[in-house]
Amino acid sequence: MSKNIVIIPTYNEKENIEAIIRKVFSLEVDFHLLIVDDGSPDGTAIIVKKLQQEFGHRLHMIERSGKLGLGTAYITGFKYCLEQGYDYIYEMDADFSHNPEDLVRLYHACAIDGADISIGSRYVSGVNVVNWPMKRVLMSYYASKYVQFITGLPFNDTTAGFVCYSRRALAHLDFDKIKFVGYAFQIEMKFTIWKHGFNIVEVPIVFTDRTEGESKMSGGIFKEAVIGVIKLKVNSFFRKFAPCTAPQQEKISIEETKKKTEASLVEA
């Protein structure tokens, strides 16, 4: 059995879903996939079911009744993956905005270099975003800076949705205390894990906007994050965060991971 599983939440991703599944399964590291589909009316789940006949136990799917939010999709996936015994659990979009090949680098940062969490970061080495209008680039970049300022998080891409979590980090969390379901969910997860004392590193990636399907991003999603971050910080003053246990491998610093991943980009 693979120790890696990638969670991909979907809603109307028929243009991308087969291609992303085949790409992940072609990688040099063995990854399984869990699709969490929120009742896509375009037939996304039907495509996945057909591919399950080909890929068998490597391809999992949870079907939900409707659009219940990104956060609940991931938490449903986290619980399933922990029950199934996976050691490294990943978040990734279905639309190729996250390059599946970077999953290998996220895996190495955790499984080999010893991080608890690795983040595919758009902003750790400049601004690495392709095909976004400048307005959206600036909105995203300064949203992350705003989150850093309010929360004190010590890394650059606080809103990233391309992440590898170690089993021990996710198993340490009380998912009932994760309250946000939209864009702010990504911030809350990083903030909570950081407050528990886990080692989080950033792996530089290039983010490419989708070419197929429709974006799920909206102004309302950013508004949720702006208000939610303040609530998150205030509530943290009244909450105890149980410290994590010592990791099995020696912790590495954010700067060490940055140097390694930048070197790998140059070699590639």
TrEMBL record:
Q: Domain of life here?
A: Bacteria
The name this protein goes by in its record: Dolichol-phosphate mannosyltransferase
The UniProt record lists the keyword Glycosyltransferase: yes
Recorded GO molecular functions are: glycosyltransferase activity
Question: What keywords tag this UniProt record?
Answer: Glycosyltransferase, Transferase
- Glycosyltransferase 2-like domain span: 6-171
The text of the family note is: Belongs to the glycosyltransferase 2 family.
User: Which parts of the chain are coiled coil?
Assistant: none
- Pfam families for this protein: Glycos_transf_2
